[in-house]
Amino acid sequence: SQQGEEDPQALSIQEGENATMNCSYKTSINNLQWYRQNSGRGLVHLILIRSNEREKHSGRLRVTLDTSKKSSSLLITASRAADTASYFCATYGGGGSQGNLIFGKGTKLSVKP
Amino acid sequence: AAGVIQSPRHLIKEKRETATLKCYPIPRHDTVYWYQQGPGQDPQFLISFYEKMQSDKGSIPDRFSAQQFSDYHSELNMSSLELGDSALYFCASSLRVGNSPLHFGNGTRLTVT
Fold first, then answer.
1. How much of chain B exceeds pLDDT 70, in percent?
2. For labelling alongside B111, which of A10, A18, A57, A75 has CA 20 to 30 A away?
3. Which residues contact B71 (CB under 8 A, 6 or more apart)?
4. What total of structural domains would you count in chain B?
5. CATH number at residue B54
6. Where do the domains of chain A lie?
7. Residue A50 has what pLDDT?
């Protein structure tokens, strides 16, 4: 079963606006990671939040984690056209054990200049 | 810094042919992963290796096999190719300790005609 599900599936905003993407997962986790993928390219790790953390910041990125609701959100503030990409959350399968990283369906973000 | 290198970048094969994809992980990374990503889909985990031994197996068809060699490079062998095998194939590497983030290559785009 899919470990992470993102919503919305697609998001279109204007430059300067904030973008919020949500992710839900099903099993217990040690951490949750967010990745970005430009079209046809490899995924790039953005940020990792551990299960004992509630919020984490990195530049214009803010990630929250609610383990009671098994959900996470990624906020990109002051978006730029260069932020246009697909964003995936990912958790390790097998109840958080190191093994295979399972990705959600992803949110396709389009930032219009 | 050295990244994950995949070759070839593009590959066109006919049905029932075989294909071999190569991956050179980041030096000193002990874990290699293979993912398949269909058009508009999330990356699906195929198989992983830890210290050259198969670690986890995902949705890898029996027609596919993979191995990791003594120099840590990995190869994904695909036989009896089907049209549905057309996808982007990503290799990623990481350090197993601490659920470290995955570093992805730019993928091999396989087209089966």
1. 98
2. A10
3. none
4. 1
5. 2.60.40.10
6. 4-112
7. 93
Contact assignment for A101 to B106 by CB distance below 8 Å:
no
Using CA atoms, how far residue A14 sits from A8, A87, A88, A100, B71, in Å, is 16, 17, 21, 36, 47
| Cα→Cα distances A37→A46, A62, A84, A103, Å | 10, 18, 9, 12
Residues of the domain holding B22: 5-102
Interval B2-13: pLDDT, tens: 899 999 999 999
Q: How far apart are CA B42 and CA B35, in angstroms?
A: 10
Q: Mean pLDDT across the stretch B15-37?
A: 96
The conformation of residue A3, written as its DSSP 8-state character, comes to S
Query: For residue A52, what are the β-bridge partners?
Result: none
Domain A4-112 grouped into CATH 3.40.190.290: no
> Does B43 fall in a domain?
yes
> Does some domain include residue B110?
no
Q: Which residue has the tokens 């009671």?
A: A68
Structure tokens at B8: 């070839």
Report chain A residues touching chain B, CB-CB < 8 A.
2, 30-31, 33, 35, 40-45, 48, 88, 92-93, 98-106
Instruction: Choose among A61, A2, A52, A9: nearest CA to A27.
Output: A2
On whether residue B111 sits in a domain, the answer given is no
